[in-house]
Amino acid sequence: MERRRTTLLLLFLIFLFSLSVYSLGSKSYYDVLQVPKGASEDQIKRSYRKLALKYHPDKNPGNDEANRKFAEINNAYEVLTDKEKRSIYDRSGEEGLKQHAAGGGGRAGGMNIQDIFNNFFGGGGRAEEEEDKIPQGDDLIVELHASLEDLYMGGSLKVWREKNVIKPAPGKRRCNCRNEVYHRQVAPGMFQQMTEQVCDQCQNVKYEREGYFITVDIEKGMLDGQEVVFYEDGEPIIDGEAGDLKFRIQTAPHDRFRREGNDLHTTVTISLIQALVGFEKTIQHLDEHVVEIGSKGITKPKEVRKFRGEGMPLHLSNKKGDVYVTYEVLFPKSLTGDQKTKLNTVLS
């Protein structure tokens, strides 16, 4: 009982902390809950449940970082499960929520943190017990090679998915097995405690292989290693929750640009005359807009010039990286005697 009181007090203090730091810094509420912006309420609830179990104070005693994340998760969940607040947040961000609260349109943190846990964990925030009750299938991670064009402008890929699906089968099976304790009298005034496994009878099931297309949305500026998650679309498990299907982004090779983080690198070849007297030249970007890369001065072989703000968009930001152009100078294969004489006259 004392431990439960301590836990509830800690939850309350964390909740107050989440209200005092209402802004989540550079992370959006969707990032905190690890869901896409268009996530359904069911997706948000499932992701919240997994993250809340992971960072619950009972499982992370003395871990300040876990407690901070736990507060962020609850704050984000409270906003994204309220239709009005989510709509305001999508339009105007955190500043819009603050103005809404200041104008009497609702109070920040309107959902009590204990109420949130009552919905998921039966009232006491007993995360470990709840987690033990629900078996979970394996997560499936797929490396997805996305084109630079899709990563620059945003896009989508259709992926064929085959997986095992649980289907009804003839007959019954043992299910929902649990250990029940009872007492047996072995002598007058003497009892022995016994444990017996008790199971229900459920419809039998079988695995069948099914295939279908999945549309994977590629967001602008996604980096290698970021994941697009399809919750509970991983490996199924009987009498439990399926794992998650995760597409891990990798940048596909490109014929003109090479990506390094948020920057792009490309190589442009110019003639020796252009290198000496200057030139006018353009390159076509990933969205087909034109970037002027000409020069009025001398360009040295292997010289690198930066074009600010012409790189990859930063994920979930209006900012962009830079483009770095490396110049290769094309020298003539041979010179005539007259050309050599003229060059000596000009350059000496």
TrEMBL record:
Residues annotated as signal peptide: 1-25
GO cellular component, one term: endoplasmic reticulum lumen
Family matches, as PROSITE patterns: DNAJ_1, DNAJ_2
Keyword Endoplasmic reticulum (UniProt): yes
Gene Ontology MF: a single term: unfolded protein binding
Subcellular location: Endoplasmic reticulum
Keywords recorded for this protein, A-Z: Chaperone, Endoplasmic reticulum, Signal
Membrane-crossing segments per the record: none
This protein's name: DnaJ protein ERDJ3B
Organism listed in the record: Dioscorea cayennensis subsp. rotundata
Taxonomic lineage of the native organism: Eukaryota, Viridiplantae, Streptophyta, Embryophyta, Tracheophyta
